[in-house]
Amino acid sequence: MTHILLVEDDPAIAMSLKVTCKREGWQITWLDNASSVLPMLHSEQAQTLSAIILDVGLPDGDGLNLCQQIRHTPDIKGLKDIPVVFLTARSDEEDRILGLEMGGDDYCAKPFSPRELVARLKAIWRREQLHSQQLSTSSAAAPLSSVIHQPASPETTISHASINTAVNMKSERTLTFEYHSGIWHYYPLNYSLIWQDQKLELSNTERKLLLTLLKAPNQVFSRQQLLSSVSDYPDHRLARTIDSHIKSIRKQLASVDPSIDVIHTHRGLGYALCPA
Q1: Helix, coil or strand: residue 185
Q2: Distance from chain centroid for Cα 28
Q3: In sequence order, which residues have a C-beta less than 8 Å from that of residue 141 and are 6 or more positions away?
Q4: CA 264, 270, 273: angle at the middle one, nearest 5?
Q5: Angle 12-13-18 (CA atoms, 0-180°, nearest 5)?
Q6: Which of the four CATH numbers 1.10.10.10, 3.30.70.1450, 3.40.190.10, 3.30.70.920 does domain 131-273 have?
Q7: For residue range 230-266, what is the model confidence (pLDDT) as tens digits?
Q8: Class of the CATH-defined domain 3-122
Q9: pTM of the full structure
Q10: In Å, how far are 5, 79, 86 from 22, measured between CA atoms?
């Protein structure tokens, strides 16, 4: 069953969302304060979560900072990439941009329709599924020297030998991209992206952006195209968030190997992978 965590201090909004989610056949856990969120995420109950709906303005904390904690707390197993949708009464563009940069996948500005929020969640899940399918399709059509399929590991593995020999009981397939920058392994089962035998600690959005570049190494993507690749509701005003995400990706890549320029900036156009 789809399980949603709702963090919202307004009982009227919470009740409305609970009714809508119940109609969808979803289970919803409601918390009305920030201090209860991390303890809940450390519990066994959290392992069934499909998404988090997070109010930005909570009585005892900031939803933006809370999202950042969720994304960067190592011992919250399996939830680093969980979709987060912000609820915000703030109409300022900077606040919406900040939410996306801190790891949010989408936002709904109050007042909003519960049905719209449900639609946005479904769009995020659909985007994840389509993204994996597109990667598989494009990889199957690519030259063998560029993309290699291997059996995927049920867990993230760092050993190159383990990556090559691991077998996944669910028959999930690994996508392996080989460019001058090295070998990249993507495990769709647990959303792990490994480069130079090291797992990249990327946010959900950052991972999808990098995979978009990896599957089309000779294409220059505009900011709007990259934004559309990670959202079913791209807002052209938020396209500049792509620059922040690319900067974060580059920082992570540089921590693995600072000698390789993986992403090239085409001034006035956008970004592309450096395949050769």
Answers
A1: strand
A2: 21
A3: none
A4: 35
A5: 100
A6: 1.10.10.10
A7: 776 656 656 777 888 898 899 999 999 999 889 999 9
A8: alpha beta
A9: 0.57
A10: 13, 23, 20
